[in-house]
What we know:
The chain has about 350 residues and is α/β, with parallel strands linked by helices.
Amino acid sequence: MSRASTVYFYDLRKQQLARLEDVVDKLLSPFKGYVKGVVGVKVHMGEEGNVTHLRPEFVRAVVDWIRSVGGDPVVFDTTTLYAGSRNNGVSYLNLASRKGFNYATLGAPVVIGDGLKGNLGFKVAIRGVELSEVEVAEIVGQLDSMVVLSHFKGHVTAGFGGAIKNLAMGCTTKKGKASQHRAHMPRVLAELCTGCGTCVKHCIYGAIQVVEGKARVNYDTCVGCLECYFACPNRALEVPSEGPVKLQARLADAALAVLSSLSYKPVYLNALINITSRCDCLGCVMTPIMGDIGFLSSLDPVAIDQASIDLVKTVNGGVNPFLEIHGIDGEKQLEYGEKLGLGLRAYSLVEV
């Protein structure tokens, strides 16, 4: 008999007057036994200017549910590699408060899980596809259980981001993130480079300089954050063709490191609402590419992401919209995730 993981589905298309409290209760009640003690609620609070990330009201509903079953919730995220309001813990907490992610709104403390500088963590040895060691954020080792809240959306180099990416990037330190991002360090297209220096100004790691009128990347210090790639006015930087597949392999590797450090199974909740073509790290207003679909929950990060992309494809006439937009097949992360034992791509979808 073939194996399959259970994924619960709350279909918003059939529930036009849904209440967040009811949605959360239906999706998380099957996993009461997995939520206890100090419960980390992993979120992504969105970059400055982003408005399509998961809203504080939804996080509050999850926090209240956790407390109702006896858990002691703490809401957390980690710092980013790229420059911005989430690059260090102090700036991120200030941004979080402005966005409504604070104790008054959530009813739980908000913590930056890898410290003020993004360097508090512990190394986990793994036998990954690409990586043998990943530095995991300190908070992960201090929790008794965890609920991973993921906004399912597109991503320019990973294809899409869901539960696996939320574990891999969201639960690691800056070093842990860099080990993943270095899969796609940019290359300079000399024929297009004018030596304008825009890339130099945007690189907070000092990894790119203009030498003899052309940009030059120091790959010893480059972390692959792609700030230079997005900032270049002449499109004179490119992501290596093999980069996206390597990144997806490393996402699976980093997720393996996070899960290997735990003595419990996290609960995953994916939100298929405000589905944008790019991730919540983009600091601007983005128009969703389709209508809201619903919410999913599971104990299997591979299965919940597989079910999410399958639902998105179904709504889009059977075609992966992120593949159409970015030319990246995000399902490679699912393939690698299953190979590493993170979960199963086969699933049984149960409507609640």
